[in-house]
Specification:
Oligomer: single chain
Number of domains: 2
Distance between the termini: 78 Å
Radius of gyration: 29 Å
Shape: elongated
Strand content: 5-15%
Largest sheet: 8 strands, mixed
Structural class: alpha/beta
Strand order of the largest sheet: 1-2-4-3-5-8-6-7
């Protein structure tokens, strides 16, 4: 079969798929790409010359849900493709936007290499053109010297190339043709090499600008837009195969890490007895699990992942961010019990900012410790708590039979810990009856529930956690304690003490000094002070425990701004990724959470959540009347 026959057959196949309106991704001859995600009234195009393909422009175009990247040598081919796409979409919409993008030639004076040119008509779609112009001007945050100019012309493609579609034909069809010439602002003017970090930011800005431009066009120029109510809905609904591969690879590496298990002592109960025997004056000896993985091999595996092949800028950001975090976590495991452990912990979890330290100090000064004369509550042991946990899981299992986490009572665990889909219960656990429901909602209703919901998403990292998810996750878990009426003043004191302890460690206090600070100044009993101090100093200095209070404060703030509470349960998400999660929900890449916490059925929780959404702050939660 001849090359021309192959091309004709491919065109016929593509035309049929376009009429059906299904998802269509095709590799085209000579390195071209076509994506038509669904019925959308726009197409972004980049025609490249043979041996002169600008991969940066190609990646900008391929970030759109409807795009065509094609060799200029296939003239009749791209004309036929463009015409087929336009006509198939005009059967659904009564207008269509064709946006062609190309790189500006670099053999021009430097001042010309700072100018974005929009080639456009003079007499129509001015609001759409203005949105495009304004979006490009926002790049001045990154590139202060750029200009954005409108060029009123009938020629809206690269110099020397015939138009994608004749303007006369376009007028009859309700077609708006725009051209955009992009200067090489992402290149070093001397070495002619990319500024990679700048290029990433430019791609993100372009992605949003093009979506907003298309959304404006749809709202003003078409009448068939009832299902497109937000510009974020214009992104692709399908995961690129490369994204699926990278997502799966990152999850595999993350699960092999078992980070918290690797950096948490296995002998905390015995260590306390030793510490007590030495009158709390000699640092106890902590034992850790043997490191199960080779850090060098894990890092090699991590950086062999082809991140540069991700076309979608949202997934590029999320996956690269997670890779970078995992790199640091691997370094932390390797540096366990050295000073480098603390330095890397600060990179992931941060330290203690002044405002957070002030909140913690105020909480400890305003909430006196419990008096010894008070009646002691009933306590549950490990087996009894496991039984209550089993009942909680059974209830959620009725909501979705896929929810079936495991419960393990372990001698090498102190307290409670969630690892993937397992609830680990320390064999010597003692929990006050008054705290049981709060802890069930903390561990099962938050950590295990978001793990389950994330496991049902196309992006599996939502199961193990996006980068920096702990702050949101622990804030959400502590909020659950409040919503079920189990966030006691003593619990708040512990969260505040963790912040004070982390701050002391960062400022140079050792284990004994931090313990004495909590025990003598803030009047925590020896065992509680020991637990807090041990958590803070585990591994060599883990600043993670400051995120509980910080996460709660941030969560109260965003809920008062109208953030959807349900959206926080799609998986394990961080504060800085909320916008991306909303985008992916709009794009229908992600689905709403399959299971929500049991407490959202309780009148008390509903009332308290409404109180928070109306603007309650942390100190309002301490008020027993609320």
């Amino acid at each position: 079969m001849s090359k021309n026959q192959n091309t004709e057959d491919l065109l016929v196949n593509i035309s049929q798929k376009l009429v059906e309106g299904n998802y269509l991704r095709r590799n085209l001859p000579e390195g071209g790409k076509l994506l038509v995600d669904r019925h959308l009234p726009f197409l972004c195009v980049y025609r490249f010359n043979e041996n002169q393909k600008d991969e940066n422009i190609a990646m900008i175009v391929k970030g759109q849900a409807s795009h065509l990247v094609i060799s200029n040598s296939l003239r009749s081919y791209w004309r036929s493709l463009t015409k087929a796409i336009v006509h198939s979409r005009l059967d659904v919409f009564d207008a269509f936007l064709l946006l062609e993008i190309w790189p500006q030639p670099i053999d021009k004076p430097y001042e010309d290499l700072q100018q974005f040119k929009i080639f456009c008509p003079t007499d129509k779609a001015q609001s759409t053109i203005q949105v495009l112009k304004k979006g490009l001007e926002n790049l001045r945050v990154l590139l202060p010297e750029i200009e954005v100019v409108k060029v009123h012309s009938k020629l809206r493609g690269p110099v020397g190339l015939p138009p994608l579609i004749k303007l006369e034909t376009g007028k009859e069809l309700g077609l708006l043709v725009l051209g955009l010439e992009i200067p090489p602002v992402y290149l070093d003017p001397v070495l002619k090499v990319n500024y990679p970090l700048l290029l990433q930011k430019i791609r993100r800005s372009f992605n949003e600008t093009i979506k907003k431009t298309v959304f404006e066009f749809i709202q003003v120029q078409t009448s068939s837009h009832s299902d497109i109510s937000h510009y974020l809905m214009l992104g692709s609904r399908e995961l690129q195969p490369t994204v699926q591969f990278i997502d799966k690879k990152l999850v595999q590496i993350h699960e092999s890490l078992n980070f918290l298990m690797e950096v948490t002592p296995v002998n905390m109960d015995r260590a306390f007895l030793e510490f007590k025997k030495n009158n709390f004056e000699k640092k106890p000896r902590f034992n850790y699990r043997l490191i199960a993985t080779n850090p060098d091999l894990l890092k090699r595996e991590l950086y062999q992942i082809p991140m540069e092949q991700i076309e979608d800028v949202t997934f590029s950001f999320l996956l690269k961010e997670k890779r970078n975090e995992m790199d640091i976590q691997i370094s932390m495991i390797e540096a366990r019990n050295t000073k480098n452990f603390l330095y890397n912990s600060l990179r992931i979890y941060g330290g203690v900012e002044k405002s957070l330290y002030n909140i913690a100090s105020k909480l400890l000064s305003s909430l006196p410790p419990s008096e010894n004369g008070q009646l002691k509550p009933d306590y549950l042991d490990a087996n009894e708590f496991a039984e209550r946990s089993t009942r909680e899981i059974a209830f959620l299992h009725q909501k979705n039979t896929g929810f079936n986490p495991k419960i393990e009572i372990r001698k090498d665990t102190s307290g409670l810990m969630v690892s993937q889909n397992r609830l680990l219960i320390g064999a010597n656990l003692k929990i006050a009856e008054t705290r049981v429901e709060a802890l069930l909602q903390h561990e099962i209703g938050t950590h295990l529930l978001t793990h389950f919901n994330g496991s049902k998403q196309p992006l599996q990292l939502l199961m193990t956690g996006l980068a920096g998810y702990e702050e949101m996750q622990e804030g959400l878990a502590v909020l659950a304690e409040y919503l079920v009426g189990g966030l006691s003043k003593e619990r708040i004191r512990v969260l505040a003490a963790r912040v004070i302890g982390v701050h002391a460690m960062i400022e140079g206090a050792d284990f004994i000094e931090t313990f004495q600070l909590l025990h003598r100044k803030y009047h925590f009993d020896p065992f509680t002070a020991f637990q807090i101090t041990t958590r803070i100093f585990r591994g060599g200095g883990l600043t993670k425990d400051a995120v509980y209070l910080r996460g709660l404060v941030k969560l109260l703030e965003i809920l008062s701004r109208g953030i959807s509470f349900d959206h926080l349960f799609v998986g394990k998400v961080g504060f800085k990724q909320i916008h991306y999660v909303d985008e992916l929900l709009y794009r229908k890449v992600l689905t709403k959470p399959l299971v929500l916490p049991k407490y959202l059925m309780l009148n008390l929780a509903i009332k308290r959540l409404r109180f928070i959404q109306e603007g309650a702050v942390l100190f309002d939660l301490i008020n027993p009347k609320k």
